[in-house]
Design goal:
This protein has 14 helices and no strands. It is mainly α.
């Protein structure tokens, strides 16, 4: 949908129209997510060349580099392009999340952990992406042998517990499940899953349907994996493997579910 909307508007927009470069950056992201990484990188680079503060364009190129394992290129690219500014704090923290992933690709978990402390979870706001970035990065660190420490997980779990009744997005609840499971908060994790089940039963909107179809099962699988029952977790996650895209987010973000599944098998 985002790709189609971007293409239609770009086709109709005059070449000199203000804001065209930013829309091109959005298109670049969608191209990468829908299987055209070469075009995505070209459009993203053009967007940034025309509007150096375009984070969507810079983000799109980073996604392509992450997908292709070009970690050193990715770090250099983000150092040049991912500048923060007024009104982009959450997106800026997400770009540091990408930079941390590149360090993990290179086996430098300590550098990734430093970015976590200094940027990814520094002064987080109310945007659900802040907790999503932090929880997925801590889990990736620990899966690669870098201890995150109980204090970091407890901080995320406290925030996840504070948001237990929201259930605004299955994607957000998935990352709440990661934080609560990794911190060993069984009771809070059970409350999260009960709330997701009620949301699926009582609300017929898009997110209620997503939770009923795939979100609840995947969150339960993640919680089960992190609380120590890999057999049940693997069965749940494998059964819904082909539906994970419905949760939203990007391919890079949803890779967390694939990695938890592999670890549980």
């Amino acid at each position: 949908g985002m790709r189609l909307a971007s293409e239609l508007v770009l086709d109709a927009m005059p070449a000199e129209a203000p804001g065209r470069a930013y829309l091109r950056g959005c298109l670049a992201f969608t191209l990468g997510e829908t299987g055209e990484p070469w075009r995505a990188e070209c459009e993203g680079r053009l967007a940034v060349a025309q509007a150096p503060d375009d984070l969507w364009g810079a983000h799109a190129v980073a996604h392509v580099m992450e997908r292709e394992g070009r970690a050193r290129d990715g770090i250099a690219w983000l150092e040049r392009t991912a500048r923060g500014g007024p009104g982009v704090a959450a997106f800026s923290r997400h770009m540091f999340w990408h930079r941390a992933l590149f360090h993990l690709h290179l086996g430098d978990g300590e550098a990734a952990l430093r970015l976590y402390d200094a940027e990814v979870w520094r002064d987080p706001g109310s945007d659900f992406r802040d907790l999503a970035n932090a929880a997925s990065l801590l889990w990736r660190l620990e899966s690669q042998g870098v201890p995150a420490g109980a204090a970091r997980w407890d901080e995320l779990a406290d925030e996840a517990e504070r948001r237990l009744g929201e259930h605004c997005l299955a994607f957000a609840d998935l990352h709440h499940a990661v934080a609560l499971g990794a911190a060993g908060r069984r009771s809070a994790a059970a409350r999260l899953l009960r709330g997701m089940r009620l949301r699926a039963i009582e609300d017929g909107d898009t997110q209620g349907q997503v939770m009923g179809r795939v979100g609840l099962a995947v969150a339960r699988g993640v919680v089960t994996a992190l609380l120590g029952d890999p057999g049940e977790a693997a069965a749940l996650l494998r059964a819904h493997r082909s539906q994970v895209q419905a949760l939203g987010g990007s391919n890079a973000q949803r890779d967390l579910v694939e990695r938890v599944t592999i670890d549980a098998m």
